[in-house]
Amino acid sequence: MSYSVGQVSALAGVTVRTLHHYDRTGLLSPGERSHAGYRLYGDADLARLQQILFYRELGFSLDETAAILTDPQANALDQLRARHGQLRDQIARLQRLAEVTERAIEVQRTGVELTPEERSEVFGPVTFDLSYATEAQLKWEDSPGHQESMARAAAHSKEDWRQLMGEAAAWRAELLAAFDDGVPGDGDRAMDIAEEHRLHLTRWFTACPPDMHRRIADDFAADPRAFALAVPAPEQRPGLDAYLREAIHANASRRTQSPTTTCEEDR
């Protein structure tokens, strides 16, 4: 039995345009033509189309599908095993994203509800990039420090956030003044400013030892989204992210080498 393009489109749930594309590329060329020159698909063509759609659903490219279907030496089993592994990785990632979403919903339900006006008042120019927050959650989800930080952030009241952001604004003013004055990034003034930032994180989120502070500084220098959490875009200067990184690394080395450093200083 033969089927027209329109009939195959309806049966298989693909567009006529897709079938024409498969024909042009040689992936699926109908075995017959009508007297008027129209494409006609036979049972063998429909069986091949079913295979094509199967591999498409699994995420194989048209070239990969063509290789599997046309090359007798192509090892479809190996291809399927490889795709199976990729799909399992994608499923695991989507499950983590679902968990992140659930946590975000919980934070929204239990956290401080702010009107747009209050949010502007409390956070000012600081913005939170959802894509960065999601990536950070996936990257650090097993870290006790990150878990504590998220829990404490969710528990802050509106007044807590107002005080926190006020401290952050004062700290940024010191940082920008030092940078604009040409203060060396590894000098005492810059290191003291870096130490203020470390203690601020410890005070409001989670204990931030020097090594952790170094990693945070590396994120600032590598990812503009992370740096924008510390210094909003309107206040940034070219090279400021690298300057802050230098100051934090210098301060971390100073504290690591200092014999008087104790845990009590971080409280």
Automatic annotation (TrEMBL):
<dbReference type="InterPro" id="IPR036244">
    <property type="entry name" value="TipA-like_antibiotic-bd"/>
</dbReference>
<keyword id="KW-0238">DNA-binding</keyword>
<dbReference type="InterPro" id="IPR047057">
    <property type="entry name" value="MerR_fam"/>
</dbReference>
<dbReference type="GO" id="GO:0003677">
    <property type="term" value="F:DNA binding"/>
</dbReference>
<dbReference type="GO" id="GO:0003700">
    <property type="term" value="F:DNA-binding transcription factor activity"/>
</dbReference>
<feature type="domain" description="HTH merR-type">
    <location>
        <begin position="1"/>
        <end position="71"/>
    </location>
</feature>
<keyword id="KW-0010">Activator</keyword>
<dbReference type="InterPro" id="IPR012925">
    <property type="entry name" value="TipAS_dom"/>
</dbReference>
<keyword id="KW-0805">Transcription regulation</keyword>
<protein>
    <submittedName>
        <fullName>MerR family transcriptional regulator</fullName>
    </submittedName>
</protein>
<keyword id="KW-0175">Coiled coil</keyword>
<keyword id="KW-0804">Transcription</keyword>
<dbReference type="InterPro" id="IPR000551">
    <property type="entry name" value="MerR-type_HTH_dom"/>
</dbReference>
<feature type="coiled-coil region">
    <location>
        <begin position="77"/>
        <end position="104"/>
    </location>
</feature>
<dbReference type="InterPro" id="IPR009061">
    <property type="entry name" value="DNA-bd_dom_put_sf"/>
</dbReference>
<dbReference type="Pfam" id="PF13411">
    <property type="entry name" value="MerR_1"/>
</dbReference>
<dbReference type="Pfam" id="PF07739">
    <property type="entry name" value="TipAS"/>
</dbReference>
